[in-house]
Specification:
Layout lengths: L1 H19 L3 H4 L6 H8 L13 H12 L10 E6 L2 H10 L8 E7 L15 H18 L3 E2 L7 H7 L7 E9 L15 H4 L4
Antiparallel strand pairs: 1-2, 2-4, 3-4
Length: about 200
């Protein structure tokens, strides 16, 4: 009896999917890659539970960051993991945007160690740090952790309270933890494909 019920339920689900066209990508062989699903579902989380991250979670995020590509592979970047009560308290003096996360990754760039574009002297350190930061966000998301890119902070305050950053420009902060907030109302707002890219 139960098997008949579940078969009927399965048939109804199949009919619904056909009617709503939700199974078109699958029928057409257009399945979304795991990476595309990850970047589609990742969002800027602005509230976190106090649950600490495990060392394995932190290590996996750091390894993803370490493997990030940098110009000429010069790797002019350093990541500081701020997780102590003292460190997080100092960080809150420099920014209002740690959102209660149990860990904040600070990414710094060292301009004098970076690749420089010969045509105009463009220094690649900040771009390299941004790539490393993107890897931090995506690995955190792949582990099911909430995260957000924070660019609003007082760099002078960070330099004063974190002497370890001497010689680096702190480019971005990444609060990471178990999410305690849903995506914001603008999360799904994106340019139309025709406006976003073009062929030349």
């Amino acid at each position: 009896m139960a098997s008949k019920f579940f078969k009927k339920l399965s048939d109804l689900t199949h009919i619904h999917n056909r009617a709503a066209f939700t199974d078109v990508p699958k029928r057409a062989g257009m399945t979304e890659s795991a990476f595309k699903t990850l970047v589609r579902e990742r969002y800027s989380c602005r509230a976190f539970k106090s649950t600490p991250l495990t060392q394995a979670q932190i290590d996996n995020i750091l390894e993803a960051a370490r493997l990030a590509p940098t110009a000429a592979n010069k790797q002019p970047v350093h990541v500081w993991v701020v997780k102590s009560e003292e460190g997080l308290a100092k960080l809150k003096k420099a920014t209002d945007y740690t959102y209660g996360a149990p860990v904040v990754f600070m990414v710094g760039a060292k301009p004098d160690a970076a690749w420089v574009r010969k045509y105009d002297g463009k220094n690649g350190a900040e771009i390299d740090a941004a790539i490393v930061g993107t890897h931090i966000m995506l690995e955190a998301s792949a582990q099911g952790l909430g995260n957000v890119w924070v660019g609003s902070f007082d760099p002078a305050q960070i330099k004063a309270d974190f002497p370890e950053t001497e010689g680096y420009d702190v480019v971005c902060l990444f609060p990471v933890g178990i999410a305690d907030a849903a995506p914001g109302p603008k999360h799904n707002e994106r340019q139309l494909p025709a406006d976003f890219s073009s062929e030349i």
